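Sample 1 of the test manifest.
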Amino acid sequence: MALKLILDCDTGTDDAVAIMAAAGHSALELVAVTTVNGNVPLSNVTENTLRVLDAIGASVPVHIGAARPLVRPDFPIPRHILNSKGGVHPDYLDLPSSVSSPAEASAVRFLVDYYLGSDGPQTVLVATGPLTNVALALAAEPRLAERIPRLVLMGGARGWGNVTPAAEFNIWVDPEAAEAVLTAGIRDVTIVPLDATHSAPVSLTDCDRFDAIDSPAARAASAFIRHRIENYKDAPGNSRVDAPVHDALCVAYLVHPEVLTDVREWPVHVETRGERTIGQTVFDAREWSTEPRNARVALGADPKLFVRFLADAFAGDS
Ligand code: BDR
Ligand code: CA
């Protein structure tokens, strides 16, 4: 039987690949997608999500979530100053405009009702954007902490960052939400940080392999990943030949747990007040720590297995 999952995401080029892999792989059943402010403003995220699902002919409900972080009016450095437009995540994904519409229930309403319902305890929640929706749902209905059987999230890094020297984007956008989610008492939390996603980059050669599959998902994923490779910040003269596709690694993990390597069980918290460290994930590697070990953290990943998973999902014959 296929494993049910809900994707909470801020689509985004790598979220788009995650959605297509989740919708396409026969071992998975994508129950719904919930959208959250992040890579692009919420209305763009929702439109992008609908475009992706329409492009691959997947009829999956899309629920609109939070337009801003939990307690802050904007990102720690406001979006217009950070200027995250363009680059790795264009305002709109290069796909035809959506023809389908979002579902009526909000993301938070949907998450609460779904996880209190009978399928909740069998459905993994995969969060590949800022954790605002998940934090709001847990605040609205604290019993969700026991009803969500597993949370897999892309976020954080061990001692480095991609938006500041200390912080990874998803956690930095809404650090209060991330801390609330990590301390809510969900029993099975796996964190896929930059350390793992950068260990399994996807290359131009891998894109050629996807092109040869020639399905709508394979073609779109290849285009998004090529765009990521071209626009990666640390690509001097565009000489890079690969880029991480962070969010899709969370989905690969559901089918192939061994795709994540060097997995540690640690107490994990998020810095919410530091002057230069807001959004930093603090992984407590001390063996003698008495703090609850609230998450598993993967420090590595298997690039070959990751790409094989993507190819299987896009071929639709997995
Ligand atoms: C994460 O931030 C976003 O830009 C990506 O979609 C990914 O979820 C990587 O730091
Ligand atoms: Ca994302």
